Q: What sequence folds into this?
């Protein structure tokens, strides 16, 4: 019985990982052997990697990705923390409406917003700028941060704030010195999830940019061209895909436990 | 050190329920006052209103003669000990105790001196660098006390500080809280649902039920002269026996027989409730006088005393249980008839509708 489950496990993992392995393999293949269909490269090369790092557009895309992702995550965390704390602790008119709306935004099909956003951003001059991507990213990262963080805050006993208040803390001091230190694990998790969301986005990145001024890495990759019009840039695309996957893998490996804890606590308590 | 005055203080919640109704209470400087009552009686709400954690709907709260209704908790100079202790998990014992002083922007050397002094007082010195997670329940409780004491506040508020401890430790901490309060001489308001804690700790006890103060007095006063049936039943363990009685010229007719009561029947309504404390009964083989006879249902031998439970069923109207607290030398046995002495003069008589004490 155990053996059979083990076998199924291996099968599932292989099924999930083969495309990744394929991409990694492609990224090391020499252009002449790229279509040979073997999983192990017959002719190893690092040219694909050196090539993409010599490509200014890709470097620029990485910078855009990191910058836009960090700023959007930071802003979403600041507002998300405050909103989540209010939701976890206060009763105020419109609280249910707020929770409902943030859920609605999280579920909203993003594709339906692309055209209106395109028009709005062109009119406002935000098209093809950092803020033009940061704003929609914040919008979609906020429900995520509000939901996971309020689950974390709800787990912190209210008596701690009351005790801090009695000890002479202002409401902000109680929040900053007592609640935030206890919520740090949850905040780290949430920030990583928000960053990954921004980092992975392709739809907005491709639709709301037109040059390397604001185009993020995933979108940049789709504009890769071969060295001549008859050459396929498969190798470079594979190498770039591996490069932008690495930060995510590192994040997840480092914070695996916390992310799982964060996700499940949100699932059960949210 | 401070005098706390509650002047017609009430609390109504937005949904219309009244949690506390018109409390008038003066807590003298250095006094140890207990708020006691069943859960939901408004005792914690009252404490929170004194603390400033809960707004006062109407009435006035004065500390040292100054109205403090509108003041934030930090401007009232009052410390509070919570039932869950509410220690800050990410801080060491030292940091926990220093927290109120740090917030008050006291110079660091002074903070260190005060923390050390308080830790000494509570035997916490060896634990100063531990985190709350690595402390036992009793130690956490002491840290919570330490955090309150270290500030040298005008008053202590304690919200069931012992109810998370096991029975033995609770008795131990009870005496040490009592000793500490006497030594520091700080006005203390203490909330509990446990009448033993109330009786043993308080200079005065405030008994509350459904948001209304039933009686205020010294423990002995409440025991001897309960204002109504609720207070009589709440104070004392086991609780007072209540027997419905019909008033007749020859005495009070109850399930345990007719209780003689002299010329009093003329002043009483037709039906009353008779209250007799279990400890006022005694085995007639030990003491003689007015008595009743019944079959002993259950005997609980406690060592220093014996509790005998009688069940009476007479007709359809009166059924009831009577508990007698007897001398351990009494030979009562389960299932046997026993004749029990009582003093008719020590009875309480309550109005069956209002519950007021008519004696």
A:
């Amino acid at each position: 019985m155990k053996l059979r489950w083990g076998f199924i496990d291996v099968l599932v993992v292989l099924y999930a990982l083969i495309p990744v392995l394929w991409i990694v393999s492609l990224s090391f293949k020499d252009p002449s052997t790229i279509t040979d269909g073997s999983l192990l490269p017959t002719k190893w090369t690092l040219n694909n990697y050196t090539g993409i790092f010599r490509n200014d557009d890709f470097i620029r895309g990485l910078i855009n990705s990191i910058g836009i992702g960090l700023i959007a995550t930071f802003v979403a965390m600041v507002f998300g923390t405050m909103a989540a704390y209010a939701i976890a602790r206060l009763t105020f008119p419109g609280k249910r409406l707020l929770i409902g709306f943030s859920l609605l935004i999280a579920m909203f099909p993003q594709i339906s917003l692309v055209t209106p956003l395109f028009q709005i951003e062109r009119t406002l001059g935000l098209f093809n700028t950092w803020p033009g991507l940061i704003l929609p990213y914040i919008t979609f990262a906020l429900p995520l941060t509000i939901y996971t963080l309020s689950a974390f805050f709800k787990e912190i006993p209210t008596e701690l704030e009351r005790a801090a208040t009695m000890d002479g803390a202002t409401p902000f001091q109680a929040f900053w010195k007592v609640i935030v230190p206890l919520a740090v694990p949850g905040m780290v998790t949430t920030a990583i999830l928000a960053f990954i969301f921004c980092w992975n986005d392709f739809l907005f990145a491709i639709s709301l940019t037109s040059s390397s001024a604001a185009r993020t890495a995933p979108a940049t990759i789709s504009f890769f061209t071969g060295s001549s019009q008859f050459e396929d840039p498969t190798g470079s695309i594979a190498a770039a895909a591996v490069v932008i996957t690495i930060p995510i893998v590192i994040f997840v490996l480092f914070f695996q436990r916390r992310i799982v804890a964060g996700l499940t606590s949100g699932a059960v308590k949210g | 050190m401070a005098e706390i005055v509650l002047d017609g203080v009430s609390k109504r919640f937005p949904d219309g329920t009244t949690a506390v109704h018109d409390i008038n209470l003066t807590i003298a400087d250095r006094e140890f006052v207990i708020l006691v009552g069943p859960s939901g009686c408004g005792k914690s709400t009252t404490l929170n209103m004194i603390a400033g954690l809960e707004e006062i709907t109407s009435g006035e709260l004065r500390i040292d003669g100054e109205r403090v209704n509108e003041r934030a908790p930090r401007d009232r100079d009052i410390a509070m000990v919570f039932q869950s202790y509410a220690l800050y998990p990410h801080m060491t014992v030292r940091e926990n105790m220093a927290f109120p002083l740090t917030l008050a922007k006291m110079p660091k050397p002074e903070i260190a001196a005060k923390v050390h002094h308080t830790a000494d007082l509570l035997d916490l010195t060896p634990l100063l660098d531990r985190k709350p997670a690595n402390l036992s329940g009793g130690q956490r409780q002491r840290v919570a006390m330490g955090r309150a004491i270290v500030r040298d506040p005008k008053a202590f508020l304690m919200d069931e500080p012992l109810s998370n401890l096991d029975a033995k430790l609770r008795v131990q901490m009870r005496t040490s809280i009592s000793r500490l309060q006497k030594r520091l001489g700080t006005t203390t308001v203490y909330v509990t649902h446990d009448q033993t804690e109330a009786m043993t700790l308080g200079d005065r006890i405030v008994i509350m039920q459904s948001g209304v103060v039933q009686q205020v007095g010294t423990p002995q006063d409440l025991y001897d002269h309960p204002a109504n049936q609720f207070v009589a039943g709440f104070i004392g363990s086991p609780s007072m026996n209540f027997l419905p009685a019909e008033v007749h010229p020859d005495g009070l007719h109850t399930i345990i027989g007719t209780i003689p009561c002299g010329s009093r029947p003329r002043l009483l309504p037709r039906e009353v409730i008779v209250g007799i404390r279990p400890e006022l009964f005694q085995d007639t083989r030990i003491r003689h006088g007015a008595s009743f006879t019944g079959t002993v249902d259950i005997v609980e031998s406690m060592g220093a005393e014996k509790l005998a439970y009688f069940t009476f069923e007479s007709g359809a109207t009166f059924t009831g249980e009577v508990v007698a607290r007897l001398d351990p030398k009494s030979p009562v046995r389960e299932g046997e008839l026993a004749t029990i002495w009582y003093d008719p003069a020590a009875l309480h008589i309550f109005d069956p509708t209002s519950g007021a004490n008519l004696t």
